[in-house]
Structure formats: structure tokens, C-alpha cells
Design brief:
The complex is a heterodimer.
Chain A (H helix, E strand, L loop, with lengths): L23 H14 L1 H23 L34 H37 L1 H15 L3 H12 L3 H27 L3 H8 L4 H12 L1 H24 L11 H8 L8 H28 L7
Helix pairs in contact in A: 2-3, 2-11, 3-4, 3-6, 3-9, 3-11, 4-6, 5-6, 6-9, 7-8, 9-10, 9-11, 10-11
Chain B lengths: L2 E15 L6 E15 L3 E5 L6 H8 L7 E6 L2 E2 L5 H10 E4 L13 H12 L4 H14 L16 H13 L5 E5 L7 H18 L2 E6 L2 H7 L2 E6 L2 E7 H6 L4 H8 L48 E2 L7 E2 L6
Parallel strand pairs in B: 3-8, 3-9, 6-7, 7-8
Antiparallel strand pairs in B: 1-2, 1-4, 4-5, 9-10, 10-12, 11-12
The chains are: A mainly alpha, B alpha/beta.
Chain lengths: ~300, ~325
Amino acid sequence: MDLKTNITPPPSMEKIGSKSTLSNSAFLAEIRYFFKMNKLAFLGFIIIVTLILLALLAPLIIPYPNDVALETHVENKLQPPSADHWFGTDELGRDLFSRVIYGTRVSFQIGLIAIGLAVLIGIPLGLIAGYFGRWVDEVIMRISDVFLSFPPLLLSIAIAALLGPSLTNLMIAISISWWPWYTRLIRGQVVSLRERGFVEAAQAMGVPSWKVIARHILPNSMAPVIVQISMDFGSIILTAASLSFLGLGAQPPLPEWGLLINIGRNFFLTNWWYVTFPGLFIFISVMAFNLFGDGLRDYLDPKTRDS
Amino acid sequence: MSELIEVKNLKKYFPVRKGLFGKKHFVHAVDDITFSIKQGECFGLVGESGCGKSTLSRTILRSYNPTEGTITFSNKDLFSLNKQDEKQSRKDIQMVFQDPYWSVNPKMTIGSIIEEPIVTHLKLTKKEREAEAKRLLHEVGLSPDFYSRYPHQLSGGQRQRVGIARAIALNPKLIILDEPTSALDMSVQAQILNLLKDLQRSKGFTYLFISHDLSVIKHMCSRLAVMYLGEIVEMGEASKIFKKPEHPYTKLLFNSLPTLEQTDFTLSMFEGEMPKAIDPPKGCRFASRCKYAVDACSKKQELFFINEESSHQVRCHLLK
């Protein structure tokens, strides 16, 4: 055996856990392979990128920036879609296109913060439960079971109602009902990783626990978390919109999609555009995240790959 | 030669509870094991899968606490060390794992895998560490180019060499080799075994070599112990045991090795399965599969020396 020979497996040979370790060009090849295998995931990805750009650039691209807040033009109220107002206007004459696009920014901000909080609570707890096991595991997992026993939407409503209606409380409510999913996911990963030779080797040579977790366990358990995040982002946007629709989240005049639909409901029979466009944006963004997340899951799961 | 490690009456039981209020049972994974390894020797531990070899090695590594018994390493009790001795012993006992695909972190470069023990125990600058890691790569027969590669770019044999480099990085006193070649193909196995032998010769390492492969043990070890269901059934000089195995279990085990002279290939097979390690039989544990079994076998039998002058020990009523 020539020891200097470098044996590089084709991309399909190495699956979970090796993505970030590939060299740059191989990484690009993997990405190309991923999208080639998952056309719908690619569609989802394109939509997500577009929405993110809209969210980031909203203040620059919307035609009537002042309409996002309280400025009113009552003389233009409830106009149908036209060249001036692509999505029509609302009951105070504000441009709905500007408001819906700005709503992307609001929704993505909610999603990002809520999921960030959920991950920040859920992952460390899952790591601790899985790594230390025994009673620590029991306590953490039983607490998370309590949270998991409620449907997330119902729990979010209850917490948001308890905390009082505001955007901050909405995000807190959502992350409180979402963290146990991440705890459970990570714990399962950790329990299986703990038996791996490299974890045992590190423990045996006296590497401190926190370092074993940070260097060996966390990096090798992130793949399913990333899939979960991409799937949850859609559901969280939907939940946030539902809460705002119920009056428990964003407050007027903030152009949150759910809130827009709630107000538009009053004009539904005569002015179809008011509820349609925010609804369409909710639909498109939830669908995009689901498509992308499904594709990512299939890609990372060896059982469904290449079939 | 002095004893490097002495295992005395070591027991490791795992509790199993059937049902919520069921009676507690114990898996006797390691049951009353006593042996010692001398400085610089290679001690073999043979046995079927499930006989407790791995539990024993994990207990020496202190992944588990023993139920009973002591392990004395370099004249110190491994389970009552102060903080400094604890750290020293973590440095002095290293392990090479069975599965080269699972024993290295896929997210780390070969360099940082080998540097991990160095970072943990020695205070070296980044440059010194890199030089050291490259020296170790050379030592295990890999090119220094491997330093910045990732495990998935390596073959099984190369990964196992990385595992060995990690184990020898701190010049440990004892290296536990847990079936280091059983996951590799034949040609690579021989290379790894020769590497281990060369390292032992040049560095004077002490090995605890765990395997179910008798030919590997024969090649490597000077003394060996045969384990069956958590107990040692025979122990002594490897050459003597290979020449004349005494315990019926060892005989059967060695007979299952095909030889070149053999013309009759109907191998004497084991009959039946190993009894469960949960609440094992009180007497000889091999009795249920032993064709020589007599009534006396239902009584407990300790290990005893075959004759006064030899170090050959065996646990069997028939040989008393």
C-alpha cells in the first residue's frame, strides 16, 4: 500500500457530517448535487433568498416608505390594485404593496429571533441531558415533555395571552413552545455520539467535559438541527401570523401579515385584495421553507438518498 | 520486570430492571477478574463477543466505575487518585479503538486529532505542536501531508494509524488495543500489527491486546488470558497455552483455528449459545456447553495453578 496515495471518495460516499469538512470546490459540487436531486428544494431556496432580500432591502425598495407607519391618505382609501398601488390600498389609503413587503421584514425578524431563542435554550439543555444522562437527563426531558404535550400553537396563544400582547412577548411565547423540540432532537444525537470512539478517546485522555461537548459532540450533531430550523421557520412565521391575527402579537400600525389579514377581514367581501396579498405572502414563505427543509432532510438521510 | 498494572477481584455488574416494579437483575459483565501486566509486555485478552473484554478495558480507562475490586496502576489505586495523579494516569493510559471509522472525529483535521492529547496535557506552542504531530505521523508511517486532511479522505488502515498516533502522542505507559485490526482487511491488518510491534520494540510500550482473533494474539502477545462470560478461564504464557490448552473452552476455541496441516475440515463447533450474563450459573459457566461436564461442575471453581512451578492458571474441576 502506498501510504502517500490520497484516496478521495466521490461525494456520494460520504454523507452526514462531512459537508463542512469538504474542500471548497467539493463543497460547491455537493451543493450542485443537492439542488439537482431536489428541484423543489431549489425552488424553495430561490424563494427564500428573494424573501430575505426583500426583508433586508424593504425600506429602500418600497414605493411609499411613510405608509408603513401612521401616515394616511384617506382620499385614496380601499383602491383596487393599479399601476400606482400594485396591491391596492387599505382603509386609510396606505399602499398595501409597501406594507406587505415591509411585513416580510417583520415576519423574518420574528422568525429569526424566536428560533434563535428556542435554539439557545433547547440545544444546551439537550447537550447536558444527553451527555450527563441519569437524573439530569430525567429532569430535563420530563420538563420538556410537559411542554411537548401541548400543541405549539395553543401553548403560544396561552403564553402570549398571559404575557400581554406585544411583539416581544410574541417571540418569547413562540420560543418557549418550540425549545423542547430542539432539546429532544439534540439529546438523541448526543446519546448516540457518546458511544463513538472519538468521544470515548477524548474522555479517556482527560479532556474536560465542556471541551468534549464543544469540540466533538456539538459539531457532529448539528445536521438534523439545521434541517429542523429550516422546517420550523415556516411554521413559526405561520404561528406568529396566527397570533397577530388573534390580536396577541403585533399591534397596529405595524404591517404584520397576520394583523393585516385581521383588519382586512372587515373588508373581505368588497375589497378582495386586502386579505389576499398578505395571505399569499404567508402561503409562499411557509411553502418555500417546507420545500427547502424537506429537500434538506432527504439529502441528509442516507435512506432516501439516491433512490 | 515489575508489574505495571494489577487488576484484583474486579467486578462490574450492570443493573437491569424488568418492568417498572420488577426485580432488579444484574448483568455480570466482568466477574471477579484478577491479572497483572508487566512493564513492557503484551498481554492478550481473548474471548467471544459479549464475554466482557470491552467492559474490562472500559473500566481500566475509567469510563465505568467498578462494582468491586481494585486496579493498581504504577503502584497507585486507580479509583482513589488525587487530582494530579488522576491527570497523570489519564496521560499514561491510552486506547486504540476497534472501528477506525468511528474513532476519529469527522469534523477535525488529522492534525488536530493527533494534537488533542498534546493540547490537553502539555504546554506547547502551536508550532511545536504541529512539529510534534508531524513527527508522530511519520512514526506511524503516514506522510506529514496528512496533517491538514480530514478523516474521510483516508482509508481504514490510514485512519487506524491516526488512532495509533493519537494514542502514542504522550508516550503512555499502557496502551489498550481493543481489537485494533478486526475492522480492517487482511493485508492492512498485518501492516498495523507490525507497526504496533515495531513501536513496542522501539518505545517499550506495554500493551493490553484485546481480540477474538487467536492468530493475531499468537503473533503479538507473550502472555494471555482467555475470558468466558465475565470470568478468566485460563491464563498463562502464550506459547504454552497455544501448545497445550488445558481448559475445555480454550481447547474448543483453539480447535476452531484452521491449520495448514489440517485435512479434516469438520471443525469441532461450539454447541448451544453462551448462557445469559444476567444472573449467570453459580458453578462453571461453561458447563452448559462443555462435553466433559460432570456433576461437580455445578459447584464454584476458582482459578488455580496447574502445577507449582508454572504460571499457567486454569479454572476447571476436571483438571484439579
